[in-house]
Structures are given as structure tokens and as C-alpha cells.
Amino acid sequence: MGRWSNTPYEVESLKRITIADLKKLGYLQPNVRVSQNIFWTNQYGERTGAITVIIDTTETDGYITFDYTYNQSKKVNYKVRLITRPSNLGNSLLWFFVCPSTQKVCRKLHLNSGYFLHRTAFSDVYYEKQLQSKKWRGWEKTFGSYLDDKLYEELHKKHFKKYYNGKPTKKYLQLMKKLNARKAISFEDIERALLM
Question: Domain of life here (predicted)?
Fold first, then answer.
């Protein structure tokens, strides 16, 4: 007879609800009451989950009610407090969740064990990097920039600014440093590391 898996979950693979997504959808505004459905899809566009959210806000705080079925059998309905804090630019208010379990103020809630909570509320949830072996982390540190295609994607994004006020931006300089580090790595270095 098989045993239950004790493999920890990766934060990146969990379903989540973020303040940024709620704002992008137009659901999170002061003095509103909104009831909407949110859907998750996989890489092929197929629906993998759905949830009903009811958002009720005042000028500076409010609640979001989550209503959904977990594991096709357990009905779940609970409220999460919403609060605002002044922006560091001083021109607006930023919205945050208050985790019902840890009371931590956060901008993302992750689904695990049937509830959307702050990631620290779960004892078996880790970032992908935390689960990598020591050897793999060393490999990634040495050859990561060589294998990372996201560097070029970042560099060629539609609104990426390479210069501001005639000077290169910090982000541009960081990307160029990583891309130039690629040139120092030869195929022989990679081959040698694989044989070790």
C-alpha cells in the first residue's frame, strides 16, 4: 500500500489572489460593493478553478469575502480584512490584505489546505529556490545567467527604459552585467561542470 506524499508545496505553484490582480480587474476601489467571479486557467487556457469574491470597501478599509468549493466537496466562505496605507510617493493609498490566520499585512494570499492565507501560515510551503539542492544552487549561481532567457525578454519589453535623463537606469545596468557575464562562460566550462 502506498504512503501519503510528504513533499512540500512550492509557493510558485499555489493558486493565489493578489491586490495587483484585483486592481487590474477594477474590483478594488474605495466605496464600492462588488460581487464577481475569478477564474484560474492553465497554460492551455483551460479553467482549473473558480472563486466568487464579494468586495465591500469604505474610503480606507473594507472586507473581501471568499466563497468557493475546495476539493470538489468542502464549501468554504470567510472574510479577509482590507486596509490601506499611504503610498511612499504621498499621492495615494495602497490596499493590503490582513491575513486572518497570521494577522500579517500582505499583498498576496495563497491557497493551501483549503484557505487563502499569507504563505507563512503554512508549515509545508517553500519557495522553489529553498527546495533546490546545494549542488543545483551552485550550478545556478555559476551558470544561471547563461541559461536564463528571461534576461533578453526583460531587456526587450515594450516599456523598458534603458536611459533616464541621459544616464543608464539601474535595471538596465544590472541586466547588462548579467548578459556580459554570459560571454565569460564557455561551452567547455559547462561541459566540465556536467562531468563533475
Answer: Bacteria
